[in-house]
Structure formats: structure tokens, C-alpha cells
Amino acid sequence: MVFFETCGPNEAMVVSGMCHSRPALVTGGRIFVWPVVQKLQKISLNTMTLNVESPKVYTRHGVPISVTGIAQVKIQGQNQEMLHAACQQFLGKSTEQMRHIALETLEGHQRAIMGTMTVEEIYRDRKKFSKSVFEVASSDLVNMGISIVSYTIKDIRDDEGYLHALGMARTAQVKRDARIGEAEAHRDSGTKEALAEEARMKAKYENDTEIAQAKRDFELKKAGYDIEVQTKKAQSELAYNLQAAVTKQKIKEEDMQIKVIERGQQIKVQEQEIARREKELEATVRQPAEAEKYKVEKLAEANRNRVVLEAEAQAEAIKVKGEAEAFAIEAKAKAEAEQMAKKADAWKEYREAAVVDMVLETLPKIAAEVAAPISQCNKITMVSNGKGEVGASKITSEILDIVANLPKAVESLTGIDISKSMMLGNRV
């Protein structure tokens, strides 16, 4: 009919308006709705899956971890009170808005529970943690008309390596317990095996003892019989061995005679071989050695004579060279002596003139030596009081003054007045 509205089992219809003091709630059925005077709204009863993330939450001991939970929630349609509360909270809102509100509520309770527990409690007893979050969150969500169908922990992780360290400690503990259990099992197994081996060996030894006793009796009786048999056998073998020994002795005597003859023949052969080798040695070694010795002696004698002759020639050459050098030195000395004698005679005859001549030849050299330091100077600074000459003429005049004072120095040393002698020489 036109005025009837229907809905499926996964949704609820809410009719409000005339004739209803409170909204009429219908889940998965039909209802008559008056147009204009009544209003029809629907709300979804589908299950919503929430991924509850709580990153880096500090636990009771201050260790930050991250927990991811999976929750299944839905609006409870069988309970009229809860459905009425859900209508008050979510009617007119989208499914995503409902999901967001439920997710925020669950995440807040999840973080709060994490802060009251240690990492070990959360990690090792996930069921207890899930139950705590389920119970605390359900009280708030029920007031909103939402029930938690299921809640479980999907993942627990941390960035500090705390869980890894716990896992390593637990792994080491399990391995230790396994090794202890294995050692205890080996110990019990070894004990039982030892007891069984002891019983087996005891039975074996008892059995071996009885066997040994029976064997001993058998051996004693057998030994008695064997004595008689062996005695007769020994007498027979002794007679046989005696005769065999006599025969072997004769054979050995004949063998010795044969070996003596063979040894004599070998000695003769060796003597002949020695003689042959001596001749061979004489021809191949001794004679070439003597020839080589003679050759070496002759070469050594010739070398010695050569060295002696070279030494004598060298000594003679040194002697001749020395005599020549001595003659040259003597001749040079005689020439110098004659020159000195002639120079002395000249000095005696021309004493003053010679001195004057020497001084005149020396004056330019003295002037050059006096001026030499000045020629090496890069810069000359002259200071004058304004009364005398200034400039290069001053330097020249000082050098000439030094040269002009030389005759006085010669006169004081030799007693010869050079100026006077030069004036007499000019007059002549």
C-alpha cells in the first residue's frame, strides 16, 4: 500500500510526529506512515569494523609502545532502550560520522588502559588487556546505543627495541629450559640404560662362568689325551728332525766349499779390475794433472819475471826522473843566485836611484789599492762644514794626499830623500 513503509533486517525505521508521544521504532518490518503529519527516518544496523590505532603511548613504567586493535561495533536493534539512545545520538548522521565517534571513544579507552599496564602485561596477557578495553569502552558505547561485538589486539610494536629484548630474554629462557629438559632426559635415559646394561652384563658373566667351567673340564680331559698323543708325536718328530739336521749340516758344508771357491774367483776378478782402473787413472787423471802442473809452474815463473822486470823498469824511470828534476832545480837555483848577485851589485852601485825607481813603480799600485775600497762602494755620503772642497774632488784630493806622504814614509824608513834624489836626477 502507498502509506506503508518497510525496511530490511539490517536497518531500523523511526516514525515521529502525530499520534506518537515518542518515536515509533521498527526493526526489519513495516509501519503505516501518514504523509505530512508524520516523519520517517532510517538508521543502519550494520556492523562497523574499526581499526583502533594508539601510537607511542607511554605505559606504566614509561616505555612508549604502539598498539593496534580491531573492534566490531553496531547499533543494537533488539534492545529498544539502546535503539532509542542510538536514535538520539546518531539519527541524521552518516555511517562515517558514527564510525568516527565510536573510534574516538575506543581509542581513548585503549590509551587509558595502556597507561595503567606495563609492556610485559600487555604483551604477555593480550586477552586480559582486550577484556579490560572491552569492558571499559562498552559502558560508554552502550549509553550511545552501540554495542561492541568483538575486540582484539592486532599488533603491538615499539621503536626502542624493548619488545625485541623481551623476546630475546624469553627465547633464551625457553632454550635454557629445553636444554635442561634434554639433559634430564638424557640423564634418566642413561641411568636406565646403565641399569639394563648392568643386568645384561651380570647375566652374561654368569653364563660365561658356567661355559668356562664346562670348557675347563673339557680342556682338562682333552689335555690328558693330547699329552699322550703329543709325546708320541714329539718322539717321532725329534727323530725326524735329528736326521734332517744331519743332512742339512752336510749340505751347508758343501755350500761353504762352493762359496769359498766363488769368493776366490771374485777376489781375482777384483784384483784385475783394480789394475785396470789404476792404468785408466794413470792415463786419464795423473798424466794430465802433471802436465797442467808443469804448465801452471811455467806460467807463474813467467809472470814473476815479468813483474820483476816491470818493477825494475819503473824504479829506473823514477830514478832518471828524480835526477832530471834535481838537475833542473839546481840550474834554477844557480840562475836565481846569479840574478840576485847581479841585483845586489846594482843596488850597491845605484842604491838611491834603485830605491827611487822602485818607489815610482810602486806609487801607482799604492794609489790603486787606496782607491780600491772606494770603487766597491754603491753609495758615498759626504758631510761638510762648508769650509773645504765638496764632491768627487774631495775624494781625489784625499787619495793624492795619501800618495804624497809616501816619500816622507820612505825617507823615515830608508834615510833616502826621494824628492831630493828626483830633483838631482832632473838637473843631470
Automatic annotation (TrEMBL):
* Gene Ontology molecular function: protease binding
Domain Band per the UniProt entry, residue ranges: 86-268
Which Pfam families does the record cross-reference, listed alphabetically? Band_7, Flot
Which family does the record assign?
Belongs to the band 7/mec-2 family. Flotillin subfamily.
The biological processes this protein is annotated with in GO are: positive regulation of cell junction assembly; positive regulation of cell-cell adhesion mediated by cadherin; positive regulation of endocytosis; protein kinase C signaling; protein localization to plasma membrane; regulation of receptor internalization
Subcellular location, principal? membrane
Per the record, the domain of life is: Eukaryota
Q: Does the keyword Repeat apply?
A: no
User: Mind telling me which residue stretches traverse the membrane in this protein?
Assistant: none
**Coiled-coil regions listed in the entry:** 267-319
Q: What is the protein's given name? A: Band 7 domain-containing protein
Protein keywords: Coiled coil, Membrane
Does the UniProt entry include the keyword Isomerase? no
Q: Where in the cell is it found?
A: Membrane
CC terms in the record's Gene Ontology section: cytoplasmic vesicle; flotillin complex
PANTHER family for this protein: FLOTILLIN-1-RELATED, FLOTILLIN-RELATED
